[in-house]
Amino acid sequence: MVLGVVVASCSSGGLDPRLQEALTKLQEMNVDGAKRLVKEVLEKHPQMCEAHLVRQLVGFQGIAREINAINNLFSIIQSDISALDISQIVDTFLRELLEPVEEFASMMYESSDVVWRKGCRVYVEDFPLQVNFGSTVSISVHLRGLMGATESIVFSAFSGALLSAMDLMFSHDLSINISSVMDLYTLIRTDRFIYLLRTLGNFMEMSPNFLNWHPDPLEKARFENIPERMADVSEKLASLVDTLSREGRDKRSFVRFYDNGDGTLDYGDTVCINFDGEVEVYAKPYTVQPYSFDIPYWVTQDLLDQANDLLLRLSAHMRGESAEALTWFHISEINGFLLAMGEEAVPDIIAIQPMAFFAGPATAGGFPNPPQPKPLRELVPYWYKDPVLGNISFMIEGEIKDEFSGDFYINAGDSPHFPDSITFYGETVTGLSIPYDCISVPSSLPDYYTLVYTGFQDPSFNGALKVNLAEITVGGFCFDQDTRPSYQDFNFPDLYSVNKVFAFLSLRFGSFIVPGLDYLFQESEDLGNLFDYSSAMRLFFPW
Asked: Is the Cα dihedral 488, 489, 494, 496 positive or negative?
């Protein structure tokens, strides 16, 4: 089988024959063979751009292969639970299971910098990907075209997000008490998502180390990798539009850009992604064709400049560079995007300082040094003995439409929440209950829509969040809560203010999500026919 390869780069000698062979191996879905060949090239030429680009492709196909292996393993477990030692499910087993995924993701991420800096390109005649999810969804597609820095940036973002998720997870102790798993099985309720969330509190009570820092210092140190990776990915994403505008003009490109004549990527242009194949859902096949879409009217150069500025500020913030290190990012900064799309602006009610989550609350002198992060165990909701059902539950409640009957911890209409005091780690914690907040589910939203109220241990998330209730205008009598001085400007939140802000945003963006999905699925009839997305949304996100 022969794979045609064309290289556009600074080198004049063409593509190394071993890289051509590696691409042929990928076409045959021989990941290990391709990986070995790329490694041989990089051992002699560690900065060869084309080798790093092919290495990213190897990593991408390798992740797909490992997802299939995990899928097959869980199919076996489902049919024969004795095939797995249940005591290893969460910690040891999960780490071993994801180790190959992490290796391939690392390959993709580590090679992105060279490709991004040097800008080489490789023409791939056929790059197959096959991924299965459970026994219901099977995706088999073929990517074709000239690939370069544009695709490398996307690979970097994908692999960076995956690696960060694994660093966040594995920097913590994931060991659980096995009896808590059995207890959870007997207590779990899936008729309401809130009931499921509440039930998970049983893990915390029964497993005293679960979600604390991992006892191995090297594993705990993985948490420190995330800020720099976020900074790096943000910087690369800021260059994505310019890179696509430059590379996508070549009609052989995997992602092609058809310009309307003004020289920039904006309204009136068309983007085409060159892939085809088949997606099978519940044994029903759907043909996938090259996907084209017109840039929406609200995408302007000014809007793209705002997005790039935000990404570069985030990059500088996460690296602690200059004055940007202490930046607070306000939710109102997205108003330019919302207004451009014809949506109503969101009030300036929330500000985020992402680095504080990883380092601790900042002062005028900067973030704590050494960093003072909190483990997830100290950030999740309080858990307590449920006085109604008698089991250990997270402090999570909800509100539905006023005209519908409520149930345990799901109230009809606006209501107060949480017990005033609980026993937590053997001590009494008081002052937890919050009053009416004058926010309720409107009749225009679906019947199942639920506002979620959460009793966070730390509503500021280690100093990363501030809220301002002064900009929220709602009717009704709220027991004078909103007139307190601490609510009239940006301050670290308490349970009342953080839940009121989250409820407000839930309604604001919840009402925007469904029309947004409608737009996306109207853009692609083939994708829209894959499944009833409204049913899927209700299954996984019943609020």
From this structure: positive
